[in-house]
Fold:
Amino acid sequence: MSDYRDLWQSLNMDLERHDLLCAALPSLYEEVYLNQPGRPQGMNYFNAVIAEIHGMRVAELAEHRKQGGKVFGTFCVFVPTEIIRAAGGVAIGLCGGSQFWVPDGEKVLPRTVCPLIKASVGAKISRTCPYFESSDMLVGETTCDDKKKAWEILNEYIPTYVMELPQMKREKDRQAWIEEVGIFKGTVEKITGKKIEREHLREAIRVENAKRKALKRLYSFRKNDPVPISGKDALLVTQIAFYDDPQRFVERTEELCSELEERVTSGYGVFKNGAPRIVIAGSPQAIPNWKLHHLIETSGAVVVCEETCTGTRYFEHLVQEEGETLEELLVNLANRYFQINCACFTPNHERVEDILRLVHEYRADGVIHYNLSFCQPYSIEAARVEKALKAKGIPCLRIETDYSEEDIEQIRTRIEAFLEVVR
Ligand code: SF4
Ligand code: SF4
Structure:
């Protein structure tokens, strides 16, 4: 990686601790990613993004800010990034996927909070994540209770704006969400100093839709047997989508897809024909949380789809691009996001239907319901998901874990036993 120390210094990062964080990633990446056989050439771009994870993109953000642009750090797939883009801002999905940050998070949060939240807060207070340090504002939402309280703590360190997301999906909730999206637009205009016109929003919708379409195309190849790309690689591409430049990301993902298309035509796969096919459903898996995928794919099965926020919940449903007025486009935008089936909603039957549909579409043999420790919404909903799957004769395994490595062998044993049932 080039030398970015001056840049990190200018962001007021804790360089000594940041060195410790950076030291761990290359060996983990090599073990989990680079050792996979038969990887597509198109993954080289994504390898380079990871090799430069705290460099190239951070330098681009610094340049953007030097030109007077703003950066917004987001945590949830409900934040309408089109609005940020339409106002000339950049939206960065903040990952919080590393165990490195958890102890710092536990300094200000109870231990009994999900690792995603603890790591996100820890990343900020330890000043070791350049994306947090490059953000002018964080955007939170009222999804799960723990997040709601975490925003109050983060707001002590950096301005943290909170969008109110309804918890039900009645018509009055949809109307409230449309209003909330409008309020968010006003806030973003204030921070960026730029008024959003219809054409700006239309272009931003087009760009974000292109990203969704590229991801949909990528996922479509995973429906084949043999699969032309591993679940780990597909997960990585989705994780990178949250913070890469969208136009560049689309180009590179489309190139990867063209290669996968050729692989499918010639019958080339990265797992043998008939390898057990698994859908992961549940909590998000932020970079560098590759634990579950790695365990599954080193046990002889392949992950063919993720019903998670780092999977289909992120890119399913496009925003309707046609609209005569700015207001119409804002309604289109709100409607698209309102279709996401997060476990924070009640009731939430649609999520169970989504999982059944994905099992069918991706010709999966079983589902692993993945739960980050202390994530109440997904943990409670897991029982209903399991019941619905079992009623259809689809095997389901429930795994609850955090970012630590302590339970790896125990989880591996459970996955191997599950794969015996699935085979
Ligand atoms: S699980 Fe729900 S709250 Fe968490 S990122 Fe996804 S949509 Fe947002
Ligand atoms: S993983 Fe669960 S507990 Fe953690 S932020 Fe998402 S919904 Fe909340």
Residues 390 and 396 are 7 Å apart (CA to CA).
